[in-house]
Design goal:
The chain has a single domain, classed as Na+/H+ antiporter like fold (Up-down Bundle). Helix content is 75%, strand content 0%. It is built from 15 helices and no strands. It has helices spanning 2-19, 25-41, 50-63, 71-76, 78-102, 107-113, 119-129, 134-153, 170-192, 198-212, 223-238, 246-278, 282-288, 294-303, 308-339. α1 runs antiparallel to α2 (25-41), α3 runs parallel beside α10 (198-212) and α12 packs across α13 (282-288). The protein is globular, with a radius of gyration of 19 Å. Pfam families: AbrB. One of its GO terms (biological process) is regulation of gene expression. GO terms for molecular function: monooxygenase activity. InterPro entries: AbrB_dup, AbrB_fam.
Length: 340
C-alpha cells in the first residue's frame, strides 16, 4: 500500500512540474516526491521487475532516434569519438581524485560517484556494489545540473513528446515482441557477466539494428510507456534517500556540485579544442561530451534543432564503453582469484 501511495504521489508531483514547463519535470518531480515520502515514512518501495522495464523502454525509445544514422555519419565522427574517450578519462580522473583526496571519500565511492553512465546503469551499479548512499546524491546533482544548464542555454519546448503512432498492426506487434524477447535474452546473458544495465544497452543496439533493417520505420514508443518508465526510475532513485539525513544531503551535495562542475568544465574544454581541430559546432560537441543524462540531452537537442544523431551516437559509444568496463573488471578479478 505504501509503495502504491509513493507511486501516485510521485506521478502527481512529476506531472505537475511537467505541466508547469520544468525541463525533465516528470523525472525530477518523481525523484523529489519519492525522496520526501520514503524519508518521512521510513520505508523502501517494493518494485519488482521495474528496473528491467525502465531499461528496455528507455533503451528502445533511444534506439528509435537513430533512424538517420548511416556508415558515412559514423566515419565522419570517428575523430570526435577519440576526443570523447580522452574527455571521459580526464573527467573520471580529475573529479574522482577531488572526491578521494579533498572530500576524503573512499576510492570505491569516489569512482562510482563520477561514473558517467546512464541513470539506469548508475542505479544498477549502486545496487551491485553496495555503494554508500551518498553516491546517489552526486548523481542526482549531476542530473539536476545538466538538465537545468542545457535547458537554460538551449531554449525550446520543454515538453517534447514522442510522435504518435497509428493503430499498431499485428506484424508490428510481433516484431516489437520479438525485439523485447531478444533484449531480455541477451540482457540476461550480459547480466551474468556483470554488465550494468544490460537490458538498456541491448535495447538501444537491437532497436537500432531493427530500425536500419526497416522493421520499425513507422513505429514510435507510446508516450505513456516512456512516462511510466520515467516515474519508475524517479521512484527507484528517490528511494535511495531512505537512510540519508538532511545534514548528509547538504554535506554530500556540496561535494557533488564540485565534482560535477569539474566534469562539465572538462567537457567544455575538450569541446572547444575539438571544435577548432575538427571544425564542428562546439555546442553540439559539448552536449556530446556531457557526462551522462542521455534522456535529457536527447530532449534538449531535439527541441533546440541540433544534430541529434551526432550527439546521441557519442552517448551510445560512451554507454557501450562504460557499461562493459565494470564487467571486464569483474571478470579479470575472478580470473586473478582462480589463478592464484
Amino acid at each position: 500500500m505504501k509503495t502504491l501511495l509513493c507511486l501516485l504521489i510521485a506521478t502527481g508531483v512529476g506531472a505537475a512540474l511537467q505541466y508547469a514547463g520544468v525541463p525533465h519535470g516528470l523525472l525530477l518531480g518523481s525523484i523529489l516526491a519519492s525522496a520526501l515520502v520514503v524519508s518521512n515514512l521510513r520505508f523502501a518501495p517494493t518494485l519488482p521487475l521495474s528496473l528491467g522495464y525502465v531499461q528496455i523502454v528507455l533503451g528502445i525509445a533511444t534506439g528509435l532516434m537513430f533512424k538517420s544514422w548511416d556508415s558515412h555519419t559514423a566515419a565522419a565522427m570517428l575523430p570526435s569519438l577519440g576526443f570523447l574517450f580522452l574527455c571521459l578519462a580526464a573527467q573520471i580522473t580529475v573529479a574522482g581524485f577531488w572526491l578521494f583526496k579533498v572530500s576524503g571519500w573512499n576510492l570505491k565511492d569516489s569512482l562510482l560517484a563520477v561514473y558517467p553512465g546512464a541513470l539506469a546503469a548508475v542505479f544498477d551499479l549502486l545496487e551491485s556494489e553496495r555503494a554508500s548512499s551518498k553516491v546517489i546524491v552526486v548523481h542526482l546533482v549531476r542530473l539536476l545540473s545538466i538538465t537545468v544548464l542545457v535547458s537554460f542555454l538551449i531554449p525550446g519546448s520543454t515538453g517534447v513528446a514522442l510522435a504518435d503512432s497509428g493503430p499498431m498492426l499485428v506484424s508490428t506487434f510481433l516484431i516489437l515482441l520479438s525485439l523485447i524477447v531478444l533484449c531480455i535474452g541477451i540482457g540476461r546473458v550480459l547480466l551474468r557477466i556483470g554488465v550494468p544495465a544490460p537490458f538498456m544497452l541491448t535495447a538501444i543496439v537491437a532497436t537500432g539494428v531493427f530500425v536500419k533493417m526497416d522493421y520499425l520505420h513507422d513505429f514510435n514508443m507510446p508516450q505513456w510507456s516512456v512516462d511510466f518508465a520515467t516515474v519508475l526510475l524517479g521512484v527507484l532513485i528517490g528511494s535511495k534517500f531512505n537512510d540519508i539525513s538532511l545534514k548528509e544531503l547538504i554535506r554530500h551535495g556540496k561535494s557533488g556540485v564540485m565534482s560535477v562542475a569539474l566534469m562539465l568544465l572538462i567537457a567544455a574544454a575538450f569541446a572547444t579544442v575539438a571544435a577548432r581541430i575538427l571544425g564542428s559546432d562546439p555546442l553540439s560537441l559539448w552536449l556530446a561530451y556531457m557526462p551522462g543524462a542521455i534522456e535529457t540531452i536527447a530532449i534538449v537537442a531535439f527541441s533546440g534543432g541540433l544534430n541529434v544523431v551526432f550527439i546521441l551516437t557519442h552517448h551510445l559509444a560512451r554507454m557501450v564503453a562504460l557499461h562493459f568496463a565494470p564487467a571486464l573488471i569483474v571478470q579479470a578479478r575472478r580470473w586473478g582469484e582462480s589463478g592464484s
